[in-house]
Design brief:
Radius of gyration: 19 Å
Order of helices and strands: HEHEHHEHHEEHEHEEEEEEE
Largest sheet: 7 strands, mixed
Number of helices: 8
Strand order of the largest sheet: 4-5-6-7-9-8-10
Bound molecules: fe (ii) ion
CATH class of the largest domain: Alpha Beta
CATH architecture of the largest domain: 4-Layer Sandwich
Shape: globular
Structural class: alpha/beta
């Protein structure tokens, strides 16, 4: 069977037959409404949140009045934990007074990375990845009718705002399908590539935000550091895909315990921006070479802010790396999408 047809049929079959019966899914408590009819103007995001450490940073995120918080992975650290213990760690974060106060005010979306999925640098071979997925989606209070429940992995897509002010948020899953075997090397997997390519090709948004737990741009993937550079063919496929749409695109990433911004030139000359924010509870101050980096490496605890001004012709997007320890803004960048 044609591979694309096969993948499409898998997606349709998965949507028709969810992996888990709804009776087994935890009840979804009331949370602030995720208003998809309003334009997105203020999005906060972050990664690398050790749940055993102080969570006072949520007060600083809340101070920015985000409409939406996006988890970009390593939401908790539960290396090699059993499903029961992992659930307990998620619960301990959800019951943390600072985080609880935050999510009572701000809608939350997210994807995962290695430490919340299973273990440091974990891949698709994790045998209980569907159980881990259930815990993660329940932690995020993902609605039972969300298509993500009915297909493998946790990749998702959302659309916000009316035509002319529409933002599409695509969240990738870089763990469920990850295969580092040299003969089968795969980061997104066929099913997720089909999804991503259809989302981009069919997008009627005015701005596309893509969340990737791993860094996209950095050329450094040694010493245990992971990133799209470790999968050069798939990174090129991503760049070709982003070049194929005339929509402005911003990549959000995390994982590396530092904050950076990048201006990446696609094969057709189109600029795409990446903002990496990490971590919320711990950080490193090591600057690695990267020709696309704009500004400095932020080596302090941080979270990311994306602000969108819709009053002009097309979205005016500002990227920010904010302190998770105070009111300081470490770095800001106003994007220029024209080329
Ligand atoms: Fe990670």
């Amino acid at each position: 069977m044609d591979r694309r047809l096969f993948v499409r049929r898998c997606l349709m079959a998965a949507a028709a037959a969810p992996l888990l019966p709804k009776s087994l899914l935890a009840s979804v408590p009331r949370r602030p409404t995720l208003r998809t009819d309003e334009p997105l103007r203020r999005i906060a995001f972050g990664s690398c949140n050790n749940q055993t450490k102080d969570q006072a940073h949520w007060r600083w995120v809340a101070r920015e009045n985000p409409q939406l918080w996006i988890w970009l992975g390593d939401t908790i650290y539960a290396n090699k934990a059993s499903i029961e213990d992992r659930e307990g760690w998620y619960q301990s974060l959800k019951e943390n007074p600072d985080y609880k106060t935050f999510i009572d005010q701000v809608p939350v979306l997210g994807t995962w990375d290695d430490h919340d999925y299973y273990d440091n640098n974990a891949d698709a071979s994790y045998v209980d990845k569907d159980g881990s997925k259930t815990l993660m989606l329940n932690f995020l209070d993902v609605a039972h009718d969300n298509p993500v429940w009915g297909r493998p992995g946790v990749f998702q897509s959302y659309s916000f705002g009316p035509s002319g002010q529409k933002t599409q948020v695509i969240l990738l899953d870089l763990r469920y399908f990850l295969d580092k075997n040299l003969t089968r090397r795969s980061l997104l997997g066929d099913l997720q590539w089909e999804f991503l390519e259809e989302e981009i090709a069919g997008s009627d948004a005015d701005l596309i935000l893509i969340g990737s737990s791993l860094n996209v741009c950095s050329p450094i993937v040694i010493g245990g550091l992971e990133g799209w550079r470790g999968f050069p063919e798939e990174r090129q496929r991503l760049y070709n895909l982003l070049a194929s749409t005339d929509k402005p695109c911003v990549l959000m990433s995390g994982d590396r315990h530092m904050g950076e911004m990048y201006r990446i030139i696609m094969p057709n000359g189109k600029p795409v921006y990446e903002i990496m924010s990490s971590g919320l509870t711990h950080s490193l101050g090591i600057t690695l070479p990267c020709p696309e980096r704009v500004g400095k490496t932020v080596g302090r605890r941080n979270f990311g802010m994306i602000t969108i001004d819709w009053t002009g012709t097309g979205p005016q997007v500002q990227l920010g790396l904010h302190s998770a320890e105070g009111a300081e803004v470490y770095q800001e960048l106003t994007t220029q999408f024209s080329y």
